[in-house]
Amino acid sequence: MRFETTTIKDIAKALGFSTSTVSRALRGGYEISEETKRIVLEYAEKINYRPNPIALSLKERRSHSIGVVVCEIANNFFSQAINGIESIAYNSGYHVIITQSNENHEREVLNVEHLASRSVDGLLISLSSESNDISYLKSLHEKGLPIVFFDRVSEEINTHKVIANNFQGGFEATEFLIKSGYTKIGHFTNAAHLSITRERLEGYKAALEKHQIPFNESYVKYCSYSGLIQDEIDAAVKDILKLKERPDALFIAQDKISTSTLLALRKLDLEYGCKIGISGFTNSNVAPLFSPPITVVRQPAFEMGQQATQLLIKLIESKHPVTEFETKTLNTQLITHSSTNRKL
Amino acid sequence: MRFETTTIKDIAKALGFSTSTVSRALRGGYEISEETKRIVLEYAEKINYRPNPIALSLKERRSHSIGVVVCEIANNFFSQAINGIESIAYNSGYHVIITQSNENHEREVLNVEHLASRSVDGLLISLSSESNDISYLKSLHEKGLPIVFFDRVSEEINTHKVIANNFQGGFEATEFLIKSGYTKIGHFTNAAHLSITRERLEGYKAALEKHQIPFNESYVKYCSYSGLIQDEIDAAVKDILKLKERPDALFIAQDKISTSTLLALRKLDLEYGCKIGISGFTNSNVAPLFSPPITVVRQPAFEMGQQATQLLIKLIESKHPVTEFETKTLNTQLITHSSTNRKL
DNA sequence: TTGAAAGCGCTAACAA
DNA sequence: TTGTTAGCGCTTTCAA
């Protein structure tokens, strides 16, 4: 035993009560005399007694904590979402355990299983880009683990979901470029099977269509590692530079891909980099400092984290099995940068 | 009971053994027949048995997990350090529980106490800017909780520490500005009592002294919220703009303060912002994109996380009480930006 | 080689 | 109102 923690037994012994009396006094039991309660509470206070949450978890099969699985903490969107998650969780008496998958399916599975076996009361998850098969999650969900998806969701599991209005974001970002005079608009995005990829691509296509610009498949680059690996982005940029009809603008559908692309452009072809119009999803706070400047689609990350957590806690604390689920869609915000305003 | 987890009891019942036999078989016991062991292991494999880590923790007083307390996950330095921590921890069979204090002392205490009561086997911590009094940590440490400090350390507790060479970083960043022709160099930094603040300030002073530039107290701004609150930085910038002798350059001693200052300059006085020379601590990957460009002091965050974790695990797994402690100091890296090279 | 039983810290059904 | 006891899942003496 590493720590000499005081237990309920110590209190009982010191005060001459039974452990159950002490237990009842501590948890504000009703079936106990005011006097005893007072004595126990005072003593507990004096010796700074803290109940052992592990013992509680073992007993109650719950831990008053929720698990979070994101791809990457260093991503602005996710770190802001985590802040939203914590803001609600703490106020509701839950602790938050954060894990990251690094866009790796195996790591994701390990994290989820660890969280589940540690008796988290529920799970908030945004899927890794490698996660196509989520049967492992499905079986956990069927066993009764409350799960709420956010950002990268899956159709395969029927539960609450919180997403940004990805179609709108893609549409507005693309249309903004079009209205600024660009016509050859490339699209860098995530792995093809992700929900966010599909939705943002739809928005992109819709904007093109509205303005009678034909969709060009060779303008779309799916980056499986979501910008985590700079080489992948460098290659994508090189690829579009090789096209006979180089894009004159890019709509980039993800936080890390946006910044990685800017870095790649800077390295590869400065002249081109300065001329190209860029709009992209990012929650970076420093985007206004970027040169070349970009127009930004910002997701309400903090609010998404909050709402997902509220839904999860509702699920956890529900007395009856929940069968009605909702998908909350929050609007994105287009922050235009004056210098992107017009094609140079 | 939410989950229908299979327990050792279920296996025992199904196989007609006692729970203790199953337990022994599962943990590769010696005092058990090969035959029984095989049967149990096969069956456990078949039903995908997973031991309940909570029960194990309760029994063994350890959890094979380490707790991490940082100020803010969204800070580049910390998210990179966390990646380093995880890389070592996972390979050594430890899980990592991340918490953030938001530079708030009370939150820090809550996090640490929660982690401790959850039986983390050890703690990695970088102190919040509000944490002057760390007696709460001290008493935990005296009770036997292994602690390793990184980045923001304290003298008050005698244990392993991992820091960057903050003096060097401060010296080089300041001298670089001097060599670029700047002479009126301001200094934005963290709360005064932090170890990193003192060390970086010393580096700054040493560089000034080496080049016979007098130290000017009114050029130093201590930002207690470490850049978390933009208003504080805006005010600091306004303050130095009011000085009769405006600084012509700034050495900024922290990640978030660096970016917040750039944002403040951009908002407040564009002309001044473009002329001023800036060098600052930051681990941002997108610093090359910044305009105005800045010269960067980069800390080896990933390696710091790794080394701190190695030290912690050594502490945790040591058979004998450890009495010799070391402080590892890792060198910073100065990344000069051509445009900062010369005073305009 | 195996099983019975105690115990980690706590709660709660049941008895008194 | 209070105490006794069993049990959450697991390990580990002690006995057989």
Automatic annotation (TrEMBL), chains A, B:
<dbReference type="Pfam" id="PF00356">
    <property type="entry name" value="LacI"/>
</dbReference>
<dbReference type="GO" id="GO:0003677">
    <property type="term" value="F:DNA binding"/>
</dbReference>
<keyword id="KW-0238">DNA-binding</keyword>
<feature type="domain" description="HTH lacI-type">
    <location>
        <begin position="6"/>
        <end position="60"/>
    </location>
</feature>
<dbReference type="InterPro" id="IPR000843">
    <property type="entry name" value="HTH_LacI"/>
</dbReference>
<dbReference type="InterPro" id="IPR010982">
    <property type="entry name" value="Lambda_DNA-bd_dom_sf"/>
</dbReference>
<keyword id="KW-0804">Transcription</keyword>
<keyword id="KW-0805">Transcription regulation</keyword>
<protein>
    <submittedName>
        <fullName>LacI family DNA-binding transcriptional regulator</fullName>
    </submittedName>
</protein>
<dbReference type="Pfam" id="PF00532">
    <property type="entry name" value="Peripla_BP_1"/>
</dbReference>
<dbReference type="InterPro" id="IPR028082">
    <property type="entry name" value="Peripla_BP_I"/>
</dbReference>
<dbReference type="InterPro" id="IPR001761">
    <property type="entry name" value="Peripla_BP/Lac1_sug-bd_dom"/>
</dbReference>
